[in-house]
Specification:
The protein is α+β, with helices and mostly antiparallel strands. Helices cover 52% and strands 16% of the residues.
Length: 364
């Protein structure tokens, strides 16, 4: 399997004539430049209009009449068009596949070049260029990273398929599902950007994103996206989302280098598309985050009800105390509630009406 083409080439400029750069490009793409865009589309048996839609969806710029495309580009076009012709994918779905793959791998490629190769290709001897150092390194790493990418993709695909197919009760739930959605936001980040040097700010954001990603994954959630000072995650149940939120607060509170954190979570129907989530539930979680106190978690009423329904939280602490007293008299263990819920003042939230937030905490 050759890498998805184009990612190593900036097609917004004329193709370079630098011999080393051309060799590096050929190494990564696994083929030589042979075709213009029109020639590649014709060879693949695809209309130029459809080929342009696919390429733009993948995030590649128009290349005009330059001969910058390879056999791998032709094969990719032929495969996508073949899926449409066979009726396995509709044309809009094929474009979505191209777009989601392009956006995800583009970000990965940018990170690898900026953070990975930059640190490994410092010329060991005076007079050597970075390209001269990069070629043998890429030659060694490329097959290993390619295999690893396919492995991770297959693992993620298996996990996502299992979540959707096993938990969806009907076809409607394949796209519109009931999920817990949470935002975690660093407090005072704008002030930090004025005070910290760029390198320090970058390190803080990277540390924040890494910590969040690790905690979300470790406790059964899914990181949807990171937005610098904010992360969005989802979980299939309210208990998992609660555990993640409180662990994020605990971890950040114990890290003196981190500013305060606030989390907002909502539970309800969510539309999923291209790995992202949309809908009123997501908007509500975002609004709750903006009004949450420092180092605290606010949840909506539906989320609180779900915690009570699943036995993760009592209706009230009074009820929990009564149940514990009854259990003690009967020689039984008290109900194992993990979380506590405290109702807060109702307040109007722009675009969502009046909301009654609940303060979430850990019991005991």
């Amino acid at each position: 399997m050759h890498p998805t083409p184009h990612h190593a080439v900036d097609h917004t400029h004329e193709p370079t004539d630098d011999p080393l750069a051309i060799r590096l490009e050929q190494l990564i793409l696994g083929a030589e430049r042979r075709y213009t865009a029109f020639q590649a589309a014709r060879t693949a048996g695809v209309s130029m209009e459809l080929a342009s839609r696919f390429w733009r969806a993948m995030g590649f710029a128009d290349i005009g009449q330059a001969k910058a495309l390879t056999e791998a580009d032709v094969l990719a076009l032929r495969r996508l068009a073949g899926l449409v012709e066979a009726g396995l994918l509709s044309e809009p779905m094929a474009v979505q596949v191209a777009r989601s793959t392009g956006q995800t791998t583009a970000r990965l490629a940018e990170w690898q070049i900026d953070s990975f190769l930059e640190g490994l290709t410092e010329p060991p001897e005076p007079g050597m260029t970075r390209t001269e150092v990069t070629y043998p390194l890429v030659e060694l790493l490329l097959p290993e990273l390619e295999e690893f990418l396919v492995y991770v993709w297959r693992r993620q695909l298996a996990a996502a398929t299992g979540r959707v197919l096993v938990q969806a009760a009907d076809d409607e739930e394949m796209v519109d599902r009931r999920l817990a959605v949470g935002f975690a936001d660093l407090v005072g980040f704008t002030r930090l950007t004025r005070r910290l040097e760029e390198e320090e700010l970058g390190e803080l954001v990277e540390s924040f994103e890494t910590t969040c990603a690790d905690l979300v994954a470790a406790h059964g959630g899914r990181l949807i996206k990171t937005l610098g000072d904010e992360v969005l995650y989802a979980a299939d149940d309210a208990g998992t989302a609660s555990e993640i939120a409180l662990r994020l607060i605990d971890t950040m509170t114990n890290d003196e280098s981190m500013p305060a954190l606030r989390v907002g979570i909502a539970f309800g129907t969510v539309t999923t598309r291209m790995g992202d989530v949309f809908g009123t539930t997501v908007n509500l979680a975002s609004r709750l985050t903006s009004i949450a106190p420092k180092d605290a978690v606010l949840v909506d009423g539906a989320f609180a009800e779900e915690l009570v329904r699943t036995g993760d939280a009592p209706v009230s602490e009074t009820q929990a105390a009564e149940e514990a007293a009854t259990a003690e008299k009967e020689g039984e263990p008290a109900p194992p509630y993990r979380f506590a819920l405290q109702p807060m003042w109702q307040r109007p939230v722009r675009g969502l009406g009046v909301v009654e937030p609940w303060l979430l905490s850990r019991r005991g």
